[in-house]
Specification:
CATH architecture of the largest domain in chain A: 3-Layer(bba) Sandwich
Helix content of chain A: 25-40%
Oligomer: heterodimer
Largest interface: A-B, 33 and 27 residues
Largest sheet of chain A: 7 strands, mixed
Strand order of the largest sheet of chain B: 1-3-2-4-5
Radius of gyration of chain B: 12 Å
Shape of chain B: globular
Order of helices and strands of chain B: EHEHEHEEH
Number of helices of chain A: 7
Helix content of chain B: 25-40%
Strand content of chain B: 25-35%
Largest sheet of chain B: 5 strands, mixed
CATH superfamily of the largest domain in chain A: FAD/NAD(P)-binding domain
Amino acid sequence: MTNKLYDVLIVGSGPAGLTASIYASRYKLSNLVTGVLPGGTITYAHEVENFPGLPGVSGLELGQKMLEHAKSLGGEFLGEKVVEVAKAQSEEGEGFKVVTSGGKEFLAKTLIVATGTERRKLGVPGEEEFLGKGVSYCVTCDANFYKDKVVALVGGSNAACSGAVHLAKICQKVYLIYRRSSLRAEPVWVEEVKRNPKIEVIYETNLVKIEGDLKVRRVVLDKPYQGREELEVEGVFVEIGGVPSSELAEKLEIELDEEGYIKVNELMKTNIPGVFAAGDVTDKSKVLAQAIVACGQGAIAANSVFEYLKGSK
Amino acid sequence: MEKQLTDQNFAEEVLKSEIPVLVDFFAIWCGPCQMMAPVVEEIAQEMEGKVKVGKMNVDENPVTAEKYGIMSIPTLILFKNGEAVKTLVGFRGKEEILREIAE
């Protein structure tokens, strides 16, 4: 086979994967990053207020800067999804073969799996039916379609609270619906939500149904709020975190935890020699699934690849 | 090359088109829309002559966006013989879009 053999192939183009590429390039490791969404899910964030050195940067800009940085150091990027992966022999010993959605094949000595998470869905009737007709998973993208309207947002995380604050600038009213008795976002966000006269928080309540005609008209709650189980809204924003994208990990028989996150040790090693993982897809990220944590893990993973390849020579 | 669509030229360029037209409804404030731009550009090149690809800024062209009930972007709509035959809501990779168009 004439395909180029990469030192490391990084699956996933979010903060973890791109940081791994930056570190790998500085270690003089040839590397390819693959991913359909350059910058990863951080690009959906309206404003990132806690990334050191870049206060108030938009998620889009942060993702783009990371991609440019990775490319400028020699990291290669391919905007395709990895669909197949298997162990393979190369001239230089054990390695991996990867096939992308565009049918391209690549060989690599090591892998870093940084596939992140996919958005968690509510799983309620009406959610799929009204996608794009009132149901949205991206506040930044769609807030402007709800000018002076009443909307609901489900969730209690940083993303949920910052989303509610952003919506409140545009909408008439925002119901923030959360299943627990207190919001789990950073106190700064919680304060901002509570101070905002346009945001009404409904605690310990689940959204169980989305109803409408051509568009969303109302949502149904599992317990009455101010005497009614129905809320008249025209938009439903879902911000309830993610589920790990671990399909590839399953193909390589990488060990996952009970929720589907890849198990890694402090060196970002998985149970398969030569396979490392970083970012939101790892069990270690569950403590704090933030871009800065993913970056840290990406850096460690690249360092571990370097040590691994040094050791195997 | 993608065709820049407006409320004014939409009927001429899309509804009366001889070949299918893929319309990318977007706005500049939307991160995933910007990520979608290079993907749509590649599709325009690959499908040249078979499928026309147009870009519609929903901010500047509210009439068409409203008519097709766009409430989430990016949204791609495939038009055939003046009718919307397929709608894809949210960011998609190139292969997935090509597969959906081919159906």
